[in-house]
Amino acid sequence: METRLSRRELLRMSGALAAGAATGAAAGLPPATARAASAPPAAAAAGPARLSFNENPYGPGPAARAAIQAATGDAWKYAVGEEMALRAQIAAREGLAPAQVVLGSGSSEILHLVALAHRGGELVTAVPTFNLIADEVRAGGGTVREVPLDGELRHDLAALRAAVTPATRLVHVCNPNNPTGTSVDGAALRAFIAGLPAGVTAVVDEAYIELGEDPAGQSAVASVKAGASVVVTRTFSKLHGLAGLRVGYGLAPAELAQRLGRLRASSLNSLGLAAATASYADTAFQAESRARLAEGRTLVVAALDELGLRHAPSSANFVFFDTGGPLPAFAAFLREKGYAVGRPFPPYDTWCRVSIGTVEQMRGFVAALRLHYGRAPA
Fold it and tell me: Can you list the alpha helix ranges (DSSP code H) found in 28-174?
């Protein structure tokens, strides 16, 4: 079974990946000539296919790769101007002011900053979900109230609201949710945010929202525009394929965004900023990457339906399904066949989260899935 790593260990690992990316660019490695058809790094082929970290094997896109190469000559300087440029670029697309955008080392840093800004307070969150902010709140001396998902493995907004107490300072919603991939209705979410008591800040993690069919309709950015106390977090790690370069951002009312920005420990790395800026404008790569990931997801869902395995409706680059038995045994079988899948997410101990790799990898995964359940490959 996959070794479970803490979020801090994952961030340290990602820093090492960023250093490797910088080394490759400095060596003059050519950018991929194809867009979404580009293969994962050759080193990844030596072990099991990584279907456990929700990464995007189709990135970085060609524009991002070219930008990394071009930026190596300026890596000696702090990327102050580059940060300002990316903030302005994001703000223009979202209909916000640059002062309402805060950058971070992945969206994980933004979640850390939110917890730091509300140190000692109470957090209401779902379970299971991406629990970094819950870990940070506990580390800062705060308390966490956990609310189970509903019967469809979605956030139960009514139950989350009922869990809010006079001590609550943060309410966290991951939409789409990790590990289930489920989404809550955008209008319902925005109404939920509007109905929170004064003094409570909503934190909406939208790391996967760009992979769904209606990102604008599902997003809580309209709540930011309406002046609500809300932080929307996004990342360049998923659709953009830049997980190793650690660039993310938060969208919030200007005063709150600037407060978070003042808590940052350092500036972003210049190669990551260059890649993110180029990728943000490369809408052709984004569309192609989104389509390929959706194709892989469709292959998995069709196989699960064929095998009669229950699964959550996913709007992300992973699928959460019930294996029908202990996850360790299932994961061990898949690893023997060349596929590493996600760790357990209690209380769903028989459920598996499989990340979407390349279409070719997902065809192989589906064949292995059929073998596990005694079905001949189609």
Answer: 62-71, 80-94, 106-117, 132-139, 157-163
Inform me whether the pLDDT recorded for 257 exceeds 70: yes
Of 204 and 25, which is predicted with more confidence? Answer: 204
In a domain, 378, yes or no: no
Exposure string for 349-361, b = 16+ CB within 10 A, e = fewer: eebbbbbbbbbeb
Give residue 294's domain range: 7-37+44-61+283-372
Instruction: Show the DSSP H helices in the chain as ranges.
Output: 7-26, 62-71, 80-94, 106-117, 132-139, 157-163, 186-194, 215-218, 221-225, 254-262, 270-281, 283-307, 327-336, 359-372
How many Å apart are CA 71 and CA 81, to the nearest integer? 13
3-state class of 355 per DSSP?
strand
What number is the average pLDDT over the span 213-225? 95
Rounded to the nearest 5°, which phi and psi values hold at 347? -90, 15
Orientation angle between helical segments 62-71 and 283-307, nearest 10 degrees:
130
